[in-house]
């Protein structure tokens, strides 16, 4: 356990913004290299999942709840 906190922010009509993550494991159990701050796709249209590639803008992704 480190003293650095991890946080996840839901951006308006956009990705999850994750700060302070140390390890990200994909569905194949592979560890992905992560930056100090990353954006994870929430719309399902990214061609670089799990990361956001900006496709949410092209498809006009809207989340009325957030
Ligand atoms: S949230 Fe950005 S591509 Fe899906």
TrEMBL record:
It comes from the Archaea. The keyword GTP-binding does not apply. Keywords: 2Fe-2S, Iron, Iron-sulfur, Metal-binding. The keyword Metal-binding applies. InterPro entries: FeS-contain_CDGSH-typ, MitoNEET_CISD. It holds the Pfam family zf-CDGSH. Gene3D superfamilies: CDGSH iron-sulfur domain, mitoNEET-type. GO terms for molecular function: 2 iron, 2 sulfur cluster binding; metal ion binding. It comes from Methanolobus profundi. One of its GO terms (cellular component) is cytoplasm. Residues 28-62 form the Iron-binding zinc finger CDGSH type domain. This is Zn-finger domain of CDGSH type-containing protein.
